[in-house]
Amino acid sequence: MTAVIEHITHADWLDIVPTLGDESIDLLYVDPPFNTGKSQSAGTHTYADSWATTDDWLAWFRERLVVTLPKMKPTANLLIHTDWRTTHHVRLLLDQLLGEDHFVNHLIWSYGLGGSSPRRFARKHDDILFYCINPKEYYFEPPMVPATSNRMKGQLKKATDILDIPSLNNMSNERVGYPTQKPLALLKMLINACSPTGGTVLDPCCGSGTTLVAAKDLGRTPIGCDQNKDAIKIARTRLAASP
Fold it and tell me: What residues are paired with 201 via a beta bridge?
């Protein structure tokens, strides 16, 4: 098996795009700041997550998507990880940039943890918008999960658009002390489903490096960047420890 060479850079998303070859990326996964209006923190690690308005956030995101799209292969996919604040805005943006027929799935990551409110239903999921570059030739390998019905007991079935994967609790060995860290199980499912073995996976807001580690573990070439020096340090450490 050919050794996987990872590429990780302390840089803004806009800075890394010019270094990429045209039609070189098989999968763009991005978990951008959600514009929560506050800093995200875990332990000593913090990053800012605030724009003056949703329109300002959307302009920031649009600028980066526009320059990234030419770097995607015709068979490539985009997975945009958002939440209730911006999902509807991002879907309309992707419809404008790619076309409504390039929409594949609106995935729900149901994670279970977190607080609740006496004023609304408890918010217990994130959204992942799945779009393709070319509706006629995009890559997809349906992920298989254990069946839950008595009729199919012990068998596997194709996963639905609701991904029931627990988030990382405070005692998880996987935790690296970085805010909004996503579980490897989630990223491995997405990468396996939406990119070919040997393909290239880009995460331009890589945070603690979960996407990059998952891609490397699965035999893909991971490319990532982040403006946060702490994130890059953690991601590099995790990649070095990955076989």
Answer: 27, 222
